[in-house]
Structures are given as C-alpha cells and as structure tokens.
Design goal:
By secondary structure, the chain is α+β, with helices and mostly antiparallel strands. The protein has 2 domains: about 70 residues, K homology (KH) domain (GMP Synthetase, Chain A, domain 3, 2-Layer Sandwich), CATH 3.30.300.20; about 70 residues, Roll (SH3 type barrels), CATH 2.30.30. It is about 20% helix and about 40% strand. The protein is built from 3 helices and 8 strands. A 5-stranded antiparallel sheet has the order 7-6-5-4-8. Helix 1 crosses helix 2. The radius of gyration is 20 Å and the shape is elongated. The N and C termini lie far apart (about 50 Å).
C-alpha cells in the first residue's frame, strides 16, 4: 500500500527550492491519493501538473494501482497550514475559536505562534445609550483556532 509519508517525500523532493508548499496529503482506502499544494505567490495548473507527473513516474501502476489528484486549495475551504496564513496577511478572514467565539477581521500578522486580527464590532459602552464601533487587535494562537476561512468580497 502507498503511504502518506511516501507521497509527501516525493512531493517535497520535487518542490524543494521553490515557493510551493504542501497544504495536505491524504491516502484513502483503495489507494486514492489526494494532494493539495499552494505557493507563497499562488500556484498555477502547470505546477500542479508537474507534481502530478513526478508522482506518476515514481509509483508503478503495474505493481500497485492508485488514483491521483493534485490540486490547489479551494478558497472556500479552511486555512490549514501556517504558510497559508502568512500568504493571506491583509485579507479579511473569519475565525472560529476553540471556545466557540466567531471573529471576523483583517489579518494583520501571522507568525510562528498565531495571528493578529483587526476587528470592528459594535459594543455597549458604559455611560452611552447607543452601541459604539470598537476596533480591536486580537492575538489568536494557532492552537486556539478551530477553523479560519478567507472571506470573499465582491465589492
């Protein structure tokens, strides 16, 4: 059976020295290989095709049959790895934390420990009748992020 580690190593050998990185590798029952790649400046179909061909030539279908899909990340899917966060600094994201808080704002920073989110919310201020717009910069460690997605805007 083909293992996730074998596939990951082949991909790492192929993309070494480039701005591409692995988002996810999965090997499901029946040798269904699914690879998601990205790049610091994005990734195109040609790059996915090159990695696809590299994997194809290193696993013999006569010895072990498999299916293979190499793709770029879907904009609607959650961010999974730190480099995706770094790549998307400056974009609006929606974050659900492990304590079930839901936050939305512009990601100002992403580092080894977590992200900094600039949020704007209406909050009650003591001594004022109407809620006021309050801007905050919130630091969220990666281990407290349950899910983070890019917010698409069509303005």
């Amino acid at each position: 059976m083909i293992t996730k580690e074998q596939v990951t190593q082949l991909i790492e050998d192929k993309i070494a020295g480039s701005d591409m990185f692995i988002v996810e590798v999965s090997v499901r029952p029946g040798n269904v290989l699914e690879v998601t790649l990205d790049g610091d400046k994005g990734i195109n179909i040609e790059a996915c095709t090159e990695v696809h061909r590299h994997i194809l030539k290193n696993f013999d279908r006569e010895v072990e049959d498999y299916s293979l899909e190499v793709s770029s990340p879907d904009l609607l899917k959650p961010l999974k790895v730190k480099r995706q966060y770094i790549k998307n600094i400056g974009r609006t994201i929606s974050v659900k934390t492990t304590v079930k808080d839901k936050l939305e704002g512009v990601m100002l920073d992403a580092n080894d420990y977590g992200i900094v989110l600039h949020t704007k919310t209406r909050e009650a201020i003591p001594g004022r009748k109407a809620k006021q717009l309050v801007e905050k910069e919130i630091e969220i460690p990666y281990d407290q992020i349950e899910q983070a997605k890019i917010v698409l805007s069509f303005k």
